[in-house]
């Protein structure tokens, strides 16, 4: 069967991964979604509000074994059920109506984690780190930079894998007998990825909103404004507004695809001279101040470590820095006795929370511009893949887009110039 084969291919090169996967599969208790401790600490949420938010999350989204779909969110519950839970089947496998379960936990959770934050048991060994789905940012897509990926984008990543990383290809085997069944499994993983992303975005935004809008005494740990959408209309409005916007962002993805002008796309019938001219023009663009490609990828396209971080690592670095500042502040105030003991106790408790949340994360890494000469492109090596990378950049990273940022707005480069850059990059990667 394809899924067993693809998994065995991945684990063959990582003996430790195999043992981790076995440990992850031996569940002695029902797994739970881990609360976003970093967001809660940043928002200085009191325990009561944290518990109330956790109850809302459970009511709206369910559990890893029993996912739920909130009203207004367009997700297929049947597909989510296939991907959720422990690996196995409901019903007899010989029966036509049997239902496979646990696809995400079987194939993805070892790296991405049950909650989807990219913090699975094997994540610490991986460079780059597994994607954090809950941030809502996806690199490899065909849509505008700030738009969500389409289902096809997510599916393409599953089928192609991400070359040069631990993310394997889930391409269908040539001798696969039940194509429809395998397609449905891919659809289930796509749907569950979206579910984790929607759930994670909602949780993070809800934490920030509650922290900003509801009064609480952080020192005393009390509030006169509990968060209870079931009984408070204003609280329910917060939930509805956040869910509506997040759902709309995902629903609009199909309309946000960057579609190149067919008249400008290079054809297979181009002459050798036309290709050579395009490569030469692309080389000039690559080295120009207009594109600044060499600032990151270097004159020869070999890439380099950058001073900047991607969004995921920058958030972690900022969080760890703020935690250090808080710790130094507590030590200073203790020595100077400039603050009440109650305030110090509250900040010490916050420091413990911040450290506990950070300990669950990986260490922050600087971004690295890709070596274009290897011929290995993580987002796909077809001309249209490179076109999308150059046109819109790579979401969440220092890689900027050179094309139009949205319909009706001119980009730094024309589509023809972007295709010339594609030709040049392909010429140095062979």
Overview of this structure, please?
Keywords: Electron transport, Heme, Iron, Metal-binding, Signal, Transport. By secondary structure, the chain is mainly alpha-helical. The protein has helices at residues 2-12, 15-25, 37-42, 47-61, 77-83, 103-107, 109-112, 151-160, 179-213, 233-251, 272-287, 294-297, 311-336, 341-359, 383-392, 415-428, and strands at 88-90, 99-101. The protein folds into three domains: 37-254, no CATH class; 258-310 and 365-429, Orthogonal Bundle (Cytochrome Bc1 Complex, Chain D, domain 2); 313-364, no CATH class. The chain has a two-stranded antiparallel sheet. Strand 1 and strand 2 form a beta hairpin. Helix 4 (47-61) packs antiparallel against helix 9 (179-213). It is globular and about 75 Å long.
Which structural class matches the secondary elements? mainly alpha
Helical stretch count? 16
Uncertain segments are: 1-26
List the quaternary state of the chains: single chain
Question: Measured on Cα atoms, how large is the radius of gyration?
Answer: 24 Å
Widest beta sheet: strand line-up:
1-2
Quote the average pLDDT.
Answer: 90
Residue share in helices?
40-55%
Number of domains: 3
The biggest beta sheet is recorded as: 2 strands, antiparallel
Along the chain, the helix and strand elements come as: HHHHHEEHHHHHHHHHHH
Describe the global form: globular
What is the tally of beta strands?
2
The first-to-last residue Cα distance is: 35 Å
The percentage of residues in β strands lies in: under 5%
């Amino acid at each position: 069967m394809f899924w067993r084969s693809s998994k065995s291919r991945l684990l063959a090169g990582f003996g430790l991964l195999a043992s981790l996967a076995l440990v992850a599969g031996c569940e002695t208790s029902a797994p739970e979604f881990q609360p976003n401790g970093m967001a809660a600490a940043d928002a200085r949420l009191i325990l009561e509000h944290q518990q109330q938010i956790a109850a809302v999350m459970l009511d709206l989204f369910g559990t890893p074994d029993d996912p739920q779909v909130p009203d207004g969110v367009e997700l297929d519950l049947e597909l989510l059920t296939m991907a959720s839970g422990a690996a196995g089947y409901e019903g007899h496998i010989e029966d036509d109506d049997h239902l496979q379960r646990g696809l995400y936990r079987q194939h993805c959770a070892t790296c991405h984690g049950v909650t989807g934050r990219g913090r699975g048991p094997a994540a610490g060994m991986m460079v780059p780190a597994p994607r954090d789905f809950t941030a809502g940012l996806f690199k490899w897509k065909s849509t505008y930079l700030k738009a969500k990926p389409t289902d096809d984008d997510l599916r393409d990543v599953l089928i192609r894998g991400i070359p040069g990383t631990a993310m394997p290809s889930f391409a269908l085997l040539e001798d696969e007998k039940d194509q429809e069944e395998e397609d449905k499994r891919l659809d289930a993983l796509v749907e569950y990825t979206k579910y984790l992303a929607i759930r994670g975005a909602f949780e993070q935004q809800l934490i920030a909103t509650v922290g900003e809008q509801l009064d609480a005494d952080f020192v005393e740990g009390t509030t006169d404004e509990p968060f209870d959408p079931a009984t408070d209309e204003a609280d329910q409005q917060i939930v509805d507004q956040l869910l509506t916007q997040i759902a709309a962002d995902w629903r609009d993805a199909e309309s946000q695809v960057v579609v190149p002008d067919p008249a400008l796309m290079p054809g297979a019938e181009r002459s050798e001279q036309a290709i050579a001219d395009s490569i030469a023009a692309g080389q000039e663009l690559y080295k120009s101040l207009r594109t600044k490609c060499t600032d990151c990828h270097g004159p020869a396209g070999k890439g380099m470590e950058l001073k900047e971080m991607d969004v995921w690592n920058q958030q972690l670095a900022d969080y760890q820095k703020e935690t250090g500042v808080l710790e130094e502040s507590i030590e200073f105030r203790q020595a100077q006795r400039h603050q009440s003991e109650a305030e110090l106790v509250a900040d010490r408790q916050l420091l413990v929370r911040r450290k506990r949340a950070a300990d669950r994360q990986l260490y922050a890494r600087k971004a690295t511009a890709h070596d274009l000469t290897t011929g290995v492109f993580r987002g796909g090596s077809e001309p249209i893949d490179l076109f999308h990378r150059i046109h819109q950049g790579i979401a969440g990273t220092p890689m900027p887009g050179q094309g139009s940022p949205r319909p009706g707005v001119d980009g730094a480069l024309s589509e023809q110039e972007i295709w010339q850059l594609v030709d040049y990059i392909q010429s140095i990667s062979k």
